[in-house]
Task: inverse folding
């Protein structure tokens, strides 16, 4: 196995291979001992995956709906190829990075100080992202009622109403799928954005094992929450990690939408487009 400190995992698709993966490609293939890997799905591969240079193709649907499946399979295969010391920085394909801050983040220990009553404690970071409510969620704050109660979320219905052409793409495997059946998801107090987040080896293994146990089926009905948590990637990741009592650490400086700031690691260029 190839020893690395971590993986910068950029999830993309065939649609953006010649656009975003060119325009927003990271200038380097390696940052220290962190390796950059770009991933797209190809339902018709003859093998589970291929890795040529730093482009990995995964045998799975290439749709937005199947993003969690693509992530989980990517993690599974990456951990078969690489001996990863720390974890994975999961990135979208439309970010412009401040390489200095990126390098600083990668080189430094993934720990943070949290308040526990009258004392402060250093903890390892297993799940770091940016929350739109600007809050962290520590393990002792995760309520069973929060994660086992279902709410309706029509986000994917709205997305596919605007992208009807995706139903005709054979790589997406969406023929005959009625998305209205899958609009219930767990009510979660905080769902960090899927644009950019860090997950440790511990969290990656939890995600791999959980998705393996449901055969990577994003349409799996989850009895505990009475919902379908896996059709929205960041919701699914949050649900699985919260279910396993993994703390989420909020970092406001992880990225900005559109606007560059010297203290922010990345700019998200394509928000809501």
Result:
């Amino acid at each position: 196995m190839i020893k690395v400190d971590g993986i910068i995992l950029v999830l993309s698709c065939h649609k953006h291979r010649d656009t975003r993966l060119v325009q927003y490609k990271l200038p380097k293939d390696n940052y220290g001992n962190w390796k950059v890997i770009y991933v797209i799905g190809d339902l018709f591969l003859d093998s589970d995956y291929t890795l040529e240079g730093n482009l990995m193709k995964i045998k799975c649907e290439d749709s937005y709906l199947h993003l969690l499946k693509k992530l989980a399979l990517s993690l599974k295969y990456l951990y078969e190829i690489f001996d990863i010391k720390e974890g994975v920085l999961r990135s979208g394909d439309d970010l412009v990075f401040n390489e200095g801050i990126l390098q600083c983040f990668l080189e430094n220990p993934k720990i943070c100080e949290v308040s526990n009553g009258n004392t402060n404690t250093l903890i390892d970071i297993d799940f770091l992202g940016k929350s739109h409510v600007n809050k962290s969620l520590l393990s002792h704050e995760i309520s069973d009622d929060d994660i086992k109660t279902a709410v309706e979320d029509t986000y994917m219905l709205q997305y596919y109403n605007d992208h009807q052409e995706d139903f005709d793409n054979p790589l997406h495997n969406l023929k005959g799928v009625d998305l209205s059946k899958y609009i219930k998801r767990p009510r979660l107090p905080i769902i960090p954005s899927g644009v950019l987040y860090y997950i440790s080896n511990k969290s990656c293994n939890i995600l791999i094992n959980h998705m393996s146990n449901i055969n990577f089926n994003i349409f799996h009905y989850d009895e505990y929450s009475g919902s379908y948590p896996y059709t929205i990637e960041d919701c699914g990741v949050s649900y699985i990690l919260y279910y396993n009592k993994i703390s989420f650490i909020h970092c406001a400086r992880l990225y900005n939408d559109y606007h560059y700031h010297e203290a922010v690691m990345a700019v998200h260029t394509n928000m809501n487009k």
Residues 67-81 form the longest helix (15 residues). The CA atoms of residues 37 and 52 lie 10 Å apart. Helices lie at 20-23, 67-81, 99-107, 144-148, 155-161, 201-213, 233-243. The chain has a mean pLDDT of 94.
